[in-house]
Specification:
Elements lengths: L2 H16 L8 E7 L10 H6 L1 H13 L1 E5 L4 E3 L6 H5 L3 E4 L5 E4 L18 H15 L6 E3 L6 H9 L1 H10 L1 H27 L6 E2 L5 E2 L3 E4 L9 H17 L3 E7 L7 H5 L6 E5 L11 H9 L3 E5 L5 H8 L4 E5 L4 H10 L5
Parallel strand pairs: 1-13, 3-6, 9-10, 10-11, 11-12, 12-13
Antiparallel strand pairs: 1-2, 4-5, 7-8
Helix pairs in contact: 3-5, 5-8, 6-7, 6-8, 7-8, 8-9
């Protein structure tokens, strides 16, 4: 099935999910990857930064993957979760084939106000090049998901140190506000530039790194460093920028990451424009039965919710949370699990 036909099949269901309309059944995104990582490149910088080999690897992987339910083939322009900080000058460390770390490159918050998004910088140019190449081959084949733009707070912490940021939030909050606004504006500038490239493919709708299609622009917003601050500080420093970023998206989505972020859930739920929340409980807390109450709270506040689940967890999840507003992602499951899903939950698809 080509991409246009897939979109036609899933669009009504995912549009209802985004709009928090009644669902008779939850929706499922699942896929089976039929090969291991085709990359044989042990040079980590080459693995991450060689555009041609990355495109070959991505296309080969997509073309050997079987998609089910509301899943669509998409290429997430993956340069690590701290890609924006790297694009703005942070020191890059290629840790392995899963992770890039950004290390601080500035000593003080005053230096942040002088940075600009430079399309000639090595790291950002690679992002643009890969996005452009992927978009050029994506018409009726796959979607392109923008690179991880990073939240203003997260990027600020990466650029001059988390401890420095936390201290400055207390000692010189006015400068933190200015720096976060500056990074917010860079976020918007970059997102709009990337969207122009992606839209050149003329595929209908858009997708973010979570792989959830929407009829317009979408992106998972987040502030992972908020794990370390109080709800009051979150509302003061983070929430205003989240509201501003949500305003430039058609389908804003919030990535709630880790149990320490639960303290900020009420604030996120208060943002009318945010349509859905992704819950990522974090290592050691993956069992979904711990979080039925949290999922129900999100749904009761008129937001849809997305979770990652094992196929064996789906029955109890539906029984305890209900189908409305529920989107389940089962990533890279086995063929046996996929057959079970197809037989048992065929009506979800």
């Amino acid at each position: 099935m080509d991409l246009k036909k897939r979109i036609k099949n899933i669009a009504p269901k995912l549009t209802d999910w985004w709009d928090h309309k009644d669902q008779k059944y939850p929706y499922i995104i699942a896929w089976t990857q039929n090969q291991t990582d085709p990359s044989q490149d042990d040079d980590l910088e080459s693995f991450w930064m060689d555009t041609e080999s990355t495109m070959n690897r991505v296309l080969e992987t997509m073309d050997s993957t079987t998609y089910f339910g509301q899943a669509l083939p998409y290429h997430y322009i993956d340069f690590g979760a701290s890609a924006m900080a790297c694009a703005l000058g942070a020191k890059v460390e290629y840790v392995d084939k899963e992770t890039i770390w950004a290390h601080p490159c500035f000593d003080s918050i005053d230096q942040i106000m002088n940075i600009e998004l430079n399309t000639d910088s090595f790291f950002y140019k690679k992002i643009i090049d890969l996005t452009t190449q992927s978009a050029a081959s994506s018409n009726n084949h796959h979607f392109v998901a923008p690179f991880a733009h990073g939240a203003p707070g997260d990027t600020l912490a990466n650029l001059y140190g988390t401890e420095n940021l936390l201290i400055d939030m207390i000692s010189q909050p006015e400068k933190v506000h200015l720096a976060m606004d500056h990074l917010k504006n860079i976020w918007i500038e970059s997102f709009q530039e990337i969207q122009k490239i992606i839209k050149s493919a003329n595929n209908e709708g858009g997708i973010g790194w979570a792989g959830i299609w929407a009829t317009g622009t979408t992106f998972p917003l987040q502030e992972d460093f908020s794990y370390m601050i109080s709800p009051e500080m979150f509302d003061t420093f983070c929430l205003p920028r989240i509201i501003d970023l949500a305003a430039v998206l058609d389908y804003p989505f919030y990535h709630l990451d880790g149990i320490g972020a639960i303290a900020h859930l009420d604030s996120i739920l208060s943002v009318e424009t945010i349509k859905a929340v992704q819950w990522q409980p974090g290592a050691g807390h993956e069992r979904l039965s711990e979080w039925y109450w949290l999922l129900q709270k999100i749904i009761d506040h008129g937001k849809s919710v997305q979770v990652y689940a094992q196929p064996s967890e789906i029955d109890d999840l539906i029984k305890n949370v209900g189908p409305k507003g529920l989107l389940i992602i089962c990533p890279n499951i086995s063929h046996d699990e996929m057959n079970m899903l197809s037989e048992k939950y065929y009506h979800f698809f």
